[in-house]
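User: Let's play a game. I give you a shape written as C-alpha coordinates, and you guess the letters that built it. Ready? Here's round one.
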Protein backbone atom coordinates (compact mmCIF):
# COMPACT_ATOMS: atom_id res chain seq x y z
CA UNK A 1 0.00 0.00 0.00
CA UNK A 2 1.42 3.47 -0.87
CA UNK A 3 2.49 5.75 1.95
CA UNK A 4 -0.10 8.40 1.05
CA UNK A 5 -2.93 5.85 1.41
CA UNK A 6 -1.56 4.60 4.72
CA UNK A 7 -1.45 8.14 6.09
CA UNK A 8 -4.99 8.83 4.88
CA UNK A 9 -6.60 6.69 7.62
CA UNK A 10 -5.71 8.89 10.64
CA UNK A 11 -6.63 12.04 8.69
CA UNK A 12 -10.05 10.57 7.91
CA UNK A 13 -10.37 9.61 11.58
CA UNK A 14 -9.79 13.23 12.66
CA UNK A 15 -12.33 14.60 10.18
CA UNK A 16 -14.90 11.94 11.12
CA UNK A 17 -14.57 12.83 14.79
CA UNK A 18 -15.44 16.43 13.95
CA UNK A 19 -18.34 15.37 11.72
CA UNK A 20 -19.80 13.05 14.38
CA UNK A 21 -19.64 15.82 16.99
CA UNK A 22 -21.38 18.24 14.60
CA UNK A 23 -24.01 15.61 13.79
CA UNK A 24 -24.73 15.08 17.48
CA UNK A 25 -25.11 18.82 18.03
CA UNK A 26 -27.44 19.04 15.06
CA UNK A 27 -29.50 16.09 16.29
CA UNK A 28 -30.01 17.62 19.74
CA UNK A 29 -30.91 21.00 18.25
CA UNK A 30 -33.41 19.51 15.82
CA UNK A 31 -35.02 17.33 18.51
CA UNK A 32 -35.56 20.39 20.67
CA UNK A 33 -37.08 22.19 17.73
CA UNK A 34 -39.37 19.20 17.12
CA UNK A 35 -40.57 19.29 20.69
CA UNK A 36 -41.07 23.04 20.79
CA UNK A 37 -42.66 23.53 17.38
CA UNK A 38 -46.15 22.13 16.95
CA UNK A 39 -45.92 21.98 13.17
CA UNK A 40 -43.73 18.85 13.32
CA UNK A 41 -45.76 15.70 13.74
CA UNK A 42 -44.69 12.63 15.69
CA UNK A 43 -44.27 10.71 12.44
CA UNK A 44 -41.82 13.22 10.98
CA UNK A 45 -39.79 13.28 14.20
CA UNK A 46 -39.69 9.47 14.24
CA UNK A 47 -38.49 9.40 10.63
CA UNK A 48 -35.87 12.05 11.39
CA UNK A 49 -34.52 10.11 14.38
CA UNK A 50 -34.36 6.89 12.35
CA UNK A 51 -32.42 8.59 9.58
CA UNK A 52 -29.93 10.29 11.91
CA UNK A 53 -29.42 7.09 13.93
CA UNK A 54 -28.57 5.24 10.72
CA UNK A 55 -26.09 8.00 9.79
CA UNK A 56 -24.38 7.83 13.19
CA UNK A 57 -24.19 4.04 12.99
CA UNK A 58 -22.46 4.24 9.63
CA UNK A 59 -20.08 6.91 10.95
CA UNK A 60 -19.21 4.71 13.93
CA UNK A 61 -18.44 1.78 11.64
CA UNK A 62 -16.14 3.97 9.55
CA UNK A 63 -14.39 5.20 12.70
CA UNK A 64 -13.80 1.64 13.88
CA UNK A 65 -12.28 0.78 10.51
CA UNK A 66 -9.88 3.74 10.70
CA UNK A 67 -8.83 2.76 14.22
CA UNK A 68 -7.70 -0.63 12.94
CA UNK A 69 -5.48 0.83 10.20
CA UNK A 70 -2.39 -1.34 9.80
CA UNK A 71 0.96 -0.38 8.32
CA UNK A 72 3.62 -2.46 6.65
CA UNK A 73 6.23 -1.48 9.27
CA UNK A 74 6.72 0.61 12.40
CA UNK A 75 6.74 4.36 11.74
CA UNK A 76 9.02 6.78 13.63
CA UNK A 77 6.96 9.88 14.41
CA UNK A 78 9.48 11.88 16.44
CA UNK A 79 13.19 11.64 17.27
CA UNK A 80 15.65 13.74 19.25
CA UNK A 81 19.09 12.34 20.10
CA UNK A 82 20.74 13.98 23.16
CA UNK A 83 22.51 11.12 24.89
CA UNK A 84 25.64 13.18 25.60
CA UNK A 85 23.68 15.95 27.32
CA UNK A 86 21.91 13.54 29.66
CA UNK A 87 25.18 11.80 30.52
CA UNK A 88 26.59 15.14 31.64
CA UNK A 89 23.34 15.95 33.46
CA UNK A 90 23.46 12.63 35.31
CA UNK A 91 27.07 13.15 36.39
CA UNK A 92 26.30 16.72 37.49
CA UNK A 93 23.33 15.70 39.62
CA UNK A 94 25.28 12.78 41.09
CA UNK A 95 28.15 15.12 42.02
CA UNK A 96 25.65 17.45 43.70
CA UNK A 97 24.29 14.54 45.72
CA UNK A 98 27.80 13.52 46.83
CA UNK A 99 28.81 17.11 47.66
CA UNK A 100 25.74 17.96 49.75
CA UNK A 101 25.82 14.58 51.48
CA UNK A 102 29.44 15.21 52.45
CA UNK A 103 28.50 18.68 53.74
CA UNK A 104 25.76 17.10 55.84
CA UNK A 105 28.24 14.57 57.21
CA UNK A 106 30.82 17.25 58.04
CA UNK A 107 28.20 19.38 59.77
CA UNK A 108 27.00 16.50 61.93
CA UNK A 109 30.25 14.59 62.55
CA UNK A 110 32.86 17.37 62.92
CA UNK A 111 31.41 20.82 63.50
CA UNK A 112 28.84 19.78 66.08
CA UNK A 113 31.28 17.89 68.38
CA UNK A 114 33.91 20.62 67.91
CA UNK A 115 31.56 23.39 69.02
CA UNK A 116 30.38 21.36 72.00
CA UNK A 117 33.95 20.71 73.12
CA UNK A 118 34.80 24.38 72.59
CA UNK A 119 31.92 25.54 74.76
CA UNK A 120 32.74 23.07 77.54
CA UNK A 121 36.41 24.01 77.47
CA UNK A 122 35.59 27.71 77.65
CA UNK A 123 33.37 27.24 80.70
CA UNK A 124 35.85 25.09 82.66
CA UNK A 125 39.12 26.92 82.03
CA UNK A 126 39.25 30.71 81.77
CA UNK A 127 43.03 31.19 81.93
CA UNK A 128 44.82 33.69 79.71
CA UNK A 129 46.32 30.92 77.60
CA UNK A 130 42.88 29.46 76.98
CA UNK A 131 41.47 32.87 76.10
CA UNK A 132 44.17 33.28 73.45
CA UNK A 133 43.18 29.92 71.98
CA UNK A 134 39.55 30.99 71.87
CA UNK A 135 40.43 34.13 69.92
CA UNK A 136 41.33 31.93 66.99
CA UNK A 137 37.61 31.05 66.69
CA UNK A 138 36.29 34.62 66.74
CA UNK A 139 35.47 34.43 63.01
CA UNK A 140 33.53 31.21 63.49
CA UNK A 141 29.80 31.84 62.76
CA UNK A 142 27.98 32.11 66.05
CA UNK A 143 24.75 30.59 64.73
CA UNK A 144 26.62 27.30 64.21
CA UNK A 145 27.13 27.02 67.97
CA UNK A 146 23.46 26.11 68.40
CA UNK A 147 22.90 22.34 68.30
CA UNK A 148 19.42 22.71 66.76
CA UNK A 149 20.82 24.86 63.98
CA UNK A 150 23.55 22.31 63.30
CA UNK A 151 21.03 19.47 63.07
CA UNK A 152 18.77 21.53 60.82
CA UNK A 153 21.61 22.47 58.47
CA UNK A 154 22.75 18.86 58.31
CA UNK A 155 19.26 17.68 57.29
CA UNK A 156 18.87 20.59 54.86
CA UNK A 157 22.18 19.80 53.16
CA UNK A 158 21.20 16.18 52.68
CA UNK A 159 17.78 17.21 51.39
CA UNK A 160 19.37 19.63 48.92
CA UNK A 161 21.51 16.88 47.42
CA UNK A 162 18.58 14.48 47.15
CA UNK A 163 16.47 17.22 45.53
CA UNK A 164 19.08 17.95 42.86
CA UNK A 165 19.52 14.27 42.06
CA UNK A 166 15.77 13.53 42.02
CA UNK A 167 15.06 16.51 39.75
CA UNK A 168 17.73 15.45 37.28
CA UNK A 169 16.43 11.87 37.21
CA UNK A 170 12.82 12.95 36.65
CA UNK A 171 13.84 15.38 33.90
CA UNK A 172 15.74 12.65 32.06
CA UNK A 173 13.07 9.98 32.51
CA UNK A 174 10.32 12.31 31.23
CA UNK A 175 12.21 13.65 28.20
CA UNK A 176 11.19 11.85 25.02
CA UNK A 177 13.90 10.41 22.84
CA UNK A 178 11.71 8.73 20.22
CA UNK A 179 8.06 8.04 19.44
CA UNK A 180 7.27 5.04 17.23
CA UNK A 181 3.85 4.08 15.90
CA UNK A 182 3.56 0.29 15.85
CA UNK A 183 2.40 -1.28 12.62
CA UNK A 184 -0.99 -2.28 14.03
CA UNK A 185 -1.82 1.43 14.41
CA UNK A 186 -3.23 1.03 17.92
CA UNK A 187 -0.10 1.32 20.11
CA UNK A 188 3.00 3.49 20.28
CA UNK A 189 6.48 2.93 21.66
CA UNK A 190 7.76 5.73 23.90
CA UNK A 191 11.54 5.90 24.33
CA UNK A 192 12.92 8.16 27.04
CA UNK A 193 16.34 8.78 28.60
CA UNK A 194 17.79 7.42 31.81
CA UNK A 195 19.75 9.58 34.28
CA UNK A 196 23.04 8.48 32.68
CA UNK A 197 22.25 8.90 28.98
CA UNK A 198 20.99 5.47 27.96
CA UNK A 199 17.47 4.87 26.63
CA UNK A 200 14.50 2.97 28.02
CA UNK A 201 11.25 2.20 26.26
CA UNK A 202 7.71 1.02 26.90
CA UNK A 203 4.59 0.48 24.83
CA UNK A 204 1.17 2.01 25.54
CA UNK A 205 -2.17 2.04 23.70
CA UNK A 206 -2.68 5.09 21.53
CA UNK A 207 -6.06 5.71 23.17
CA UNK A 208 -4.27 6.28 26.53
CA UNK A 209 -2.20 9.20 25.20
CA UNK A 210 -3.48 12.77 25.41
CA UNK A 211 -1.45 15.71 24.12
CA UNK A 212 -1.73 18.98 26.06
CA UNK A 213 0.01 21.21 23.51
CA UNK A 214 0.80 21.66 19.86
CA UNK A 215 4.01 21.45 17.88
CA UNK A 216 2.99 24.65 16.06
CA UNK A 217 2.80 27.04 19.04
CA UNK A 218 5.64 29.27 20.23
CA UNK A 219 6.68 27.29 23.30
CA UNK A 220 10.03 25.45 23.12
CA UNK A 221 8.42 22.18 24.19
CA UNK A 222 5.03 20.66 24.88
CA UNK A 223 3.85 17.80 27.06
CA UNK A 224 1.55 14.83 26.76
CA UNK A 225 -0.07 12.64 29.37
CA UNK A 226 -0.27 8.85 29.51
CA UNK A 227 -3.06 7.20 31.43
CA UNK A 228 -2.03 5.75 34.82
CA UNK A 229 1.34 7.56 34.67
CA UNK A 230 1.96 10.10 37.40
CA UNK A 231 4.12 12.64 35.55
CA UNK A 232 3.87 14.24 32.12
CA UNK A 233 6.26 13.55 29.25
CA UNK A 234 8.06 16.37 27.43
CA UNK A 235 8.69 16.69 23.70
CA UNK A 236 11.39 19.17 22.70
CA UNK A 237 10.53 20.99 19.47
CA UNK A 238 14.18 21.04 18.44
CA UNK A 239 13.76 17.37 17.59
CA UNK A 240 12.65 16.02 14.22
CA UNK A 241 8.98 15.36 13.46
CA UNK A 242 9.52 12.78 10.74
CA UNK A 243 5.79 12.32 10.05
CA UNK A 244 4.15 15.60 11.15
CA UNK A 245 0.69 14.90 9.71
CA UNK A 246 0.54 11.42 11.18
CA UNK A 247 1.87 12.76 14.50
CA UNK A 248 -0.93 15.36 14.67
CA UNK A 249 -3.63 12.75 14.03
CA UNK A 250 -2.29 10.15 16.50
CA UNK A 251 -0.16 11.41 19.39
CA UNK A 252 -1.01 15.09 18.92
CA UNK A 253 -4.72 14.69 19.73
CA UNK A 254 -6.22 15.70 23.07
CA UNK A 255 -8.30 12.87 24.49
CA UNK A 256 -10.67 13.87 27.27
CA UNK A 257 -10.96 10.39 28.78
CA UNK A 258 -7.25 10.26 29.75
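Assistant: Ready! My guess for every position:
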Amino acid sequence: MPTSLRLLGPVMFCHLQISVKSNMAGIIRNILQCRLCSRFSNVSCRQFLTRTTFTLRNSQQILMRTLTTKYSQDIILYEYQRHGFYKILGLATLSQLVFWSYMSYVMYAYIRPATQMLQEHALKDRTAENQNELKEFKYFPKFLLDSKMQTGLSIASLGMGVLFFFTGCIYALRSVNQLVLIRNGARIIVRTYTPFGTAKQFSVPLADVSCLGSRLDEKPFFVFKIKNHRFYYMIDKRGQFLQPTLFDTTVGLKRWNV
